Amino acid sequence: MPNTYFLLADYKYPLVSETYSVKSDTLKSDREKLKAFLVAEIMGWHANLKNPVLGATLAAKKYGKDQKLTVKEQTLESKDENTVILTADTAANGLFTISDELLSENIDTLALAGIDITQDKLFDMSVIGEVYDENPDLKTSPVDPATP
Question: What distance in Å separates the CA atoms of residue 97 and residue 92, rounded to the nearest whole number?
């Protein structure tokens, strides 16, 4: 039987996922390191968006060689990941950004599960904001989100 997949958000169940989590103290004491890390991550994703075969080749032939990965399979995975990370919203506002609307929807969704938390207790978007303020060239996507 063929596999089927869908995004929960497509069915009015939005949850932000694959976020970076750090201790509150780290936001203060190692903020510059966090920003440097995010700059490197964004640069890596930009490279992957432009050339999904590059990372797939490194994964299959170097870093995951002992995992018996194939370039073909890793390229398919890479291309699919690109469609998730690059949306119209992230193309306009920068990778790793989350719209105010989506942040609010996440809090509402968590409330449906009985989790009582406020947006400011769960998300801190200030670091990524600083990254883009300091590196405005990284905000622009290297490809059109309709054709990653």
Answer: 10
CB atoms within 10 A of CB 8: 11
The string of pLDDT tens digits covering residues 102-131 is 999 999 989 988 999 999 999 999 999 999
pTM of the model: 0.84
Residues 6+ apart with CB under 8 A from 19: 123
Structural contact between residues 128 and 35, judged by C-beta atoms closer than 8 angstroms: no
95: CB partners within 8 A, 6+ apart: 41, 42, 45, 46, 85, 86, 138, 141
145 band by pLDDT with thresholds 50, 70 and 90 = confident
Torsion from C-alpha of 106, 111, 117, 121, nearest 10 degrees:
0
